């Protein structure tokens, strides 16, 4: 699964972030575990999309010290860590992504 950790998205990106959240939430609730998380630069990501680099290259870029990033992504209410701690671990954009998901979840409840 590909997750682009960038908050500058429009309506489609908001929907995709919500879909990722829902998938991970359901996966976790059904006993799923995530053992490996990888991250590549935008340049490598686009090389993969353009077919210039084989997608297996991702395995060369484990996110050391960020194995829990997907679980933390699910914590949009910041029950486990304070906002400042999440920002220190993952950056301000991570918080913006969580805000997008929280907003989209609120819209779903209103419908």
Task: Tell me what you see in this structure.
The radius of gyration is 15 Å and the shape is globular. The longest helix is centred in the first third of the chain and has 19 residues, at 11-29. Helices cover 54% and strands 0% of the residues. It contains 5 helices and no strands. The model has no long low-confidence stretch (mean pLDDT 87). α1 (11-29) crosses α5 (92-110) and α4 packs across α5. By secondary structure, it is mainly alpha-helical.
- Helical amount: 40-55%
Q: Helix/strand/pairing class, anyone?
A: mainly alpha
The percentage of residues in β strands lies in under 5%
| Low-confidence residue ranges | none
Largest sheet: none
Count of helical stretches:
5
Q: What is the radius of gyration?
A: 15 Å
How many strands appear in the DSSP assignment? 0
Average of the residue pLDDT scores = 87
What overall geometry do the principal axes of the alpha carbons give? Answer: globular
* Gap between N and C termini: 28 Å
Write the element-wise H/E pattern from the N-terminal end onward.
Answer: HHHHH
